[in-house]
Amino acid sequence: MNREELKAKLKEIIEPYVQNKEALENATEETSLLLDLEINSAHLVDIILDMEEAFDIEIDDENAERMMTIGQALDISEKLLEED
Amino acid sequence: MEANQLLSFEEVLKLLPYQKPFLFVDTLSELSEERVVGHYTFLSSEYFYKGHFKERPVTPGVILTECMAQIGLVCLGIYLLHLKGNHLVQDNLSVAFAEANMRFLKPVLPNTKVKVMAERTFWRLGKLKCEARMYNEDQEEVARGTLAGMINKTG
Predict the structure, then answer these.
(1) Is B127 close to A45, i.e. CB distance below 8 A?
(2) Structural domain range at position B30
(3) What domains sit in chain A, N to C, each tagged with a CATH number?
(4) Does the CB of B148 have a partner CB in chain A at under 8 Å?
């Protein structure tokens, strides 16, 4: 999966947790999950669990805490997929 | 109270961030990493019976939900946080109710002692999710649901 495909899949995972669909539509790598997409911390945990299942990776607490933007979520996913 | 030692039922209850009239746990009878069982008696003097309903007191579903969350999420969460080595005191606990998907099966009348049994679905990154069931004194199931919340130590 290249980065664009990964980004498309990530947006699919995030979609059910976002009220503002337009913000998600226009999201860039710099888009903040909590501030721009207004995802609360409880839903952020759900997204992390959904990512683990979809990408077959394990995201530990340290990596989870660094996942503030779309780009960071992609970086962490790519890194963990490579290690696999 | 040393970290890593198991918390007693009384210690967990003492750490609950609630008080009357919004404390809905009297006792606990089972507590493990996976499961909690707690009890509460809805006395006829509870403040909400005066308004729900006029002349016909029935425990509101939101209060049943709260009771199930205080036992299934907060008591279990306190136990788990402590087990993970967090030193907890009264005011360093942050609790936020996040999700509830409930079914109410039978009315709960004043002076009913209920039992709540909750089983952990997952506990990750501060989020605790459980499946909870509530029973009356005749062991009839009165409510069930999936509950989730964020529970963390602050500072």
Answers:
(1) yes
(2) 9-153
(3) 3-83 (1.10.1200.10)
(4) yes
